[in-house]
Amino acid sequence: MTLQRVPVSKLRANPKNPRIIKDEKFQKLVQSIKDFPEMLELRPIVVDGDGVVLGGNMRLKAAKDAGLKDVPVIRAEHLTPDQQREFIVKDNVGFGEWDWDALANDWPADDLSAWGLDVPFLAEGTTMPVLPVAMEKTIEQMTFTVTGEQADTIREAITAAIMAGPFVDTGNENNNGNALARIAEVALGQFR
């Protein structure tokens, strides 16, 4: 398989593409392609023998919106129809999770957001991250399942607790954890 440059007019979006991208994120993708078109060379669009996209429908659409006349393509003509269907899904599956501590300490939150990453705990209306700082040693991590509305409320409460003032001598360098502990202490005081 070799990389080819193909006019966007010769490629067709896959009508059975199971992945969508919302307006704001799509505009970020368009801007990303305008700012860094070389990205497409590193992650080309994958098409079948007829030029139908198997991987990269949104990149193709964004490339068109960005005004590109041609894009890098890899033709996967050797795949069976079943392999093509499998590829379409697997190409869009996100394995793994983000290491938010590493992201918070190594990249500006406004860059991450501009690149299309949903940055949790980004203080509304600012580019100031309210992400956990890296810790030399993890004290304890907990995972909870909440609804979207509950998550918004929790984020807002954690942000408010962090903005309310510094945490002194907690033994924990993670501000989100400290804020959650402060919120729990206040709640416990009300329930006792």
Describe this structure in words.
This protein has 192 residues and is α+β, with helices and mostly antiparallel strands. The protein folds into two domains: 3-90, Conserved hypothetical protein from pyrococcus furiosus pfu- 392566-001, ParB domain, CATH 3.90.1530; 100-191, no CATH class. It has eight helices and four strands; from the N terminus they run βααββαβααααα. A four-stranded mixed β-sheet has the order 1-4-2-3. Helix 7 crosses helix 8 (175-191). It starts with a strand and ends with a helix. Residues 131-137 have low confidence and may be disordered.
Strand order of the biggest β-sheet: 1-4-2-3
Q: Per DSSP, what share of the residues sits in E-state strands of 2 or more residues?
A: 5-15%
Question: How confident overall, as mean pLDDT?
Answer: 80
| Unreliable sequence segments | 131-137
Total number of domains:
2
Give the termini separation: 67 Å
Note the run of SSEs as H and E: EHHEEHEHHHHH
Total DSSP helices: 8
Total beta-strand segments: 4
What overall form do the CA principal axes indicate? elongated
Spell out the blueprint of helices and strands.
Layout: E1 3-7, H1 23-35, H2 39-42, E2 45-47, E3 53-55, H3 57-65, E4 70-75, H4 81-90, H5 100-106, H6 109-114, H7 148-164, H8 175-191
Parallel strand pairs: 2-4
Antiparallel strand pairs: 1-4, 2-3
